[in-house]
Known about the structure:
The protein is an all-alpha fold. The chain has five helices and no strands. The protein has helices at 2-17, 23-31, 35-54, 59-86, 96-121. The relative contact order is 0.15.
Amino acid sequence: MLTLIVLLMICHWTADFTHLSTTWMLKAKQFGKPLLPIFAHAGAHAVLMGVVLFFYTDIDKALKLSAFQQLTHFVIDVCKGRMNGWFPSLANTANPYFWWLFGIDQFFHQLVILLMVAWLYI
């Protein structure tokens, strides 16, 4: 179980903090719109995690968990981006609340990963 959690967290990091997050996606994530690039970004997460999950469960569960990952990642990123739009000072890295929002965003992403693993093992 711990190995799967670590692998899914590596997938999350890879999709968020490498070349898989393109400028097109990052600009959209900044303010939560347009939705298509954010959906594509969430799709990168779903595909990476789906590949890992395929080795831990049957294809049906892997696809369902991948879809759950895509939906939740999309919603979390849109909400965070919209917060930046409603409160422009939150988009400034010099603002300490930028980091609070970033931490909350990452907390929810990690919580989703834990929920996915719990669904497999509980």
